[in-house]
Fold this sequence. Notes:
By secondary structure, the chain is an alpha+beta fold.
Amino acid sequence: MASSQPSKPPLASQPQSSNRSSQPGLKYPSSGKTIYHRPLNRSRTQELSQASFAYLFGEMVSYAQKRVTGIQDLEKRLNVQGHPIGLRLLDLLLYREPPRTSLRPLHIIALLQFITTTLWRHLFSRPADALEKSSNPDTPDEYMISDNEPLVNQYISVPKEMNQLNCAAFVAGIVEGVCDGAGFPARVSAHSVGKGEEGELWPGKTVFLVKFQEEVVEREAFLGRG
């Protein structure tokens, strides 16, 4: 016997919420597009807030300072943090170059000029202050990049017991990453040459010492003979 009670309409299936913003973790824009969907050339003229960079870099230094054994260990950690950035910046900056100049540098001087102009302008909106080669005949593999006022040192307060610390080791890691990515393996270190005396023109001047490996110098000499 059929039931006299009216049958209830079937419940509408509840649509599963696909809103990523309700999920824990990173929040995504409503359009579903992130920074990775933007064309690489669209953001080439955009600048980062200097205050945001100062806060972020200060936190990076604090993180690297944990469980270090000394100043050299801290500078090495900052160098390691910058190295992968240099590897990626090399590809990005070469991609943004005009087609005729988008080739990887084939000589040491071409690479260093790329670093002191294109890379420096991308990072600091200005070129490096000087590029020199070592005048010592015993060190033909050494080059020096000078920055009179490194941006990364402007907002870092260094205690007296660590006055030899130079946080521009992070930039040295970026330069080293560019050299390694271009096929010119090198060791890059940051050295403070300003004495910090009152009235000194550039008390925070830093020299980045680029020391290429022996096979790079040999290859350069072979290409020069050709």
